Amino acid sequence: MVAAVLGSSAIFLDATVVNVALPTIGRQLPATFVGVLEGQTYITSGYLATLAAFLILAGALADYYGRRRVFSIGLAAFAATSALCGLAPSLEILALFRVLQGASGALLVPCSLSIITATFDGPDRGRAFGIWAAATSATSILGPLVGGILVDTLSWRLAFLINVPILLFAFVVTRRYMAESRDEAANGRFDWLGAIVVALAVGGLAFGAIRGQEKQWADGLAFAALGIGIVCTIAFPILMAVRPNPLVPLSLFRVREFAVINLSTLLIYGALYGTFGFLGLFLQGVLGYTAFAAGLVGLPTGILLTLLSTRVGTVAARVGARPFLVMGPTLMGIALLWYARIPATSLPWRALFTDPASLIPPISTLTDVLPATLLFGCGIALVVAPLTTTLMGSVPVRNSGLASAINNAISRVGQPLLAAVIFIVVSGTFYATLAAKVPGLDPNSAAIRRGVPPLNPPIGAVPPEVALASREASTDAFHLAVTVGAVLLFSGAAVNLVGLRGRRAADPEIESDAGGGALPDPDSRD
Q: Strands, DSSP E only, in 68-181?
C-alpha cells in the first residue's frame, strides 16, 4: 500500500512541482537549439506525450509479466530519469530527459490501482482506495507549495531530485514486502506498434507545430516532423481496425456515451493542462510573482476539488451526470476569461516562505487572480467524479480497466497537441504586438527572438521601451491563450450537452449501441 501510494504521488507531485519551476528553468538553463518558451513547452508536452502513448500498453505488460515486477521497473526508471532531469545541463537535454521520464511514468500509473485491487478485498479495498485518493489529493494541493519553496529558497533542480529518495524507498518496500500478482488469462500479445504510432503522431504534430512557429516556418525538421505526425495520425485508426490485438479497440467507440465522454475529456483536459502551464509562466515571468506565490494562488482550486468531489459524485450518480458535465466546463471557461482581463500593470505577489509579512497578498491578487481560481476550482470539482462515473457506466464491468486506461491516456494526449496550438497563438501574437509597440524593431530578427522570449523576462540588457513592450505583448498573448482555452472548455460543455443522454449512469452491463453484442474482452488485445 505504501509503495503504491508513493508511486502515484510521485507522478502527481512531479506534474505540479515542475509547472511552478518552469519560469526559473527558462531563466537559468542555457539553450542553443531551442527558444526559451519553446523549450519550456517541450518540457511539459514531451513528458505527457510519452506518458499518454505508453499508458495502455504498460497496463497490459503489468497484467502479463506481473504488477510487482513492472511497478518496480517503473519506480527505478522514474527515479533515474528524475535524477537525469535534475542534473540536466541545458534546456534541450532537460526536454529529452522529460520524454524518457514520461515513458517511465507510464509504468507507474496503471500499476498503482491494479496493485491495490489485487491486494485488498471487501471493506479493506475501499479503505485502501480512500487512502490512495487522500494521498494523491494531498500531493496535488501541496505540490505547488513545495515546488515554490524549493525554487525560491534552494534550486529548481530539487523539483526533480526530490523524487529520487521517495521512489528509492518505494522500490525497497515493493521488492521486500509486495506480493506478485498477474492476470493468468493474459495471453502476452502486445500492440507495441500501436503505442509507437501514437507517440510519433502526437510527438510529430506537437514538435512540428511548435518548432515551425519558433523558426517562422523556415525549418525543414519541423515540416518533416509534421509529415510524420500526419501520416501516423491517419494510420492509427486503420491499424486499430485491422490488427488482431489492437491497443485501442475501435468497437468501444461505438458506445455513444463512451465516445462522447472521451471527446469532451480531450477538450477539457487539453485546455486544463495547456493553459495552466502558460499561467505559471505569465504570473512569474511577466507579472513577477514568486514561485511560492504562484503555488499559493492555485491552492483554492485543489482544496475545492478535494472537498466537493465526493459530494458531487454522489449527487451525480443519483440525478445524472450531464448537468454537472455541462456546468463544470462552463465555469472553468468563465474562470479563464477572468484571467483574460488581468492587466500588465497588475501588482505581483512577492510571497516568500521565509518572510511571514510577505504572505499577505496585494489587492490585485484578490481581484485579478483569486476569483478565477475559485471559479475554476468549483468547475473542476463538478467535472471529475461525474466524468469518471459516466465513463465507467458506459461499458461492461469487464471492460472497465481498458476504458479507464484509454480515457486516462486521452486526458494527457490532448495537452501536447493543444499546447502546440496555444504556443503558435502566444508566439505569433507576442512578436506582432512587440513590433507594433516598438517602431523600427524587427520581430523576425534572430537576436530579438533569442533575447526577448514570450511570457519570460528579456534575457540580458534591453532598452526600457523594449522591456515595457515585452511585458505588454506577453500580457496580450496570454489573454489570447486563455481565450483559446475557454473556447475549448465551452466546446467540451457543448459536446456533453448534445452528446450525453439526460439520465443516470448507464448499466455496467450495457451492450454496444452499434450492434447489441457485448464489447470485446480487454484481454483479447493484450
A: none
